[in-house]
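Structure (tokenized):
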């Protein structure tokens, strides 16, 4: 484990999230990790990478933080289930999971305090190959293979509400 306690995730609409660290506490596992921050610019160069795919039914559970400046990474605890093709936005990892229907309808969130991933939301529609868009009030999940003309909003209070309809299929 390379990150300890006070980390929260900034809302960037990227598949890979860039982390914002408010009150940073990093634990050095060894001298090769090199995640000591020299200045504020280093903070914006940490990337959270989750899940992936190695073949049908082989979605990855991996999670790691990569330091773009030092070209080093360190592992976080694994995701509860493999995720791919999923979205990652606003601190949530949502959907994906290949043929796993339960994973397609859930989001998980990293808890720096416990060092674990926990399920945070149950979605209204299965999501895979979808996109996400973070707003100040929550994250929109849009389209995808199993729900090509739907969207839903995953709200900060833990609820999920129907979003807007889409005119055309997204997958």
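Design, position by position:
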């Amino acid at each position: 484990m390379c990150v300890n306690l006070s980390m929260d995730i900034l809302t960037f609409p990227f598949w890979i999230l860039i982390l914002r660290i408010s009150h940073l506490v990093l634990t050095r596992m060894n001298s090769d990790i090199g995640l000591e921050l020299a200045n504020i610019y280093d903070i914006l160069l940490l990337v959270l990478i989750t899940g992936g795919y190695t073949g049908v039914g082989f979605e990855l559970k991996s999670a790691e933080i990569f330091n773009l400046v030092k070209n080093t990474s360190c592992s976080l605890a694994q995701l509860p289930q493999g995720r791919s093709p999923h979205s990652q936005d606003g601190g949530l990892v949502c959907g994906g999971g290949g043929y796993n229907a339960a994973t397609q309808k859930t989001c998980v969130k990293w808890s720096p305090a416990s060092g674990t991933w926990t399920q945070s939301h149950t979605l209204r529609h299965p999501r895979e190959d979808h996109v996400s868009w973070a707003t100040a009030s929550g994250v929109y999940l849009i389209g995808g293979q199993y729900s090509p003309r739907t969207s839903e909003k995953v709200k900060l209070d833990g609820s999920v509400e129907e979003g807007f309809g889409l005119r055309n299929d997204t997958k």
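Reviewer-requested clarification: The radius of gyration is 16 Å. Confidence is low (pLDDT under 50) at residues 3-41.
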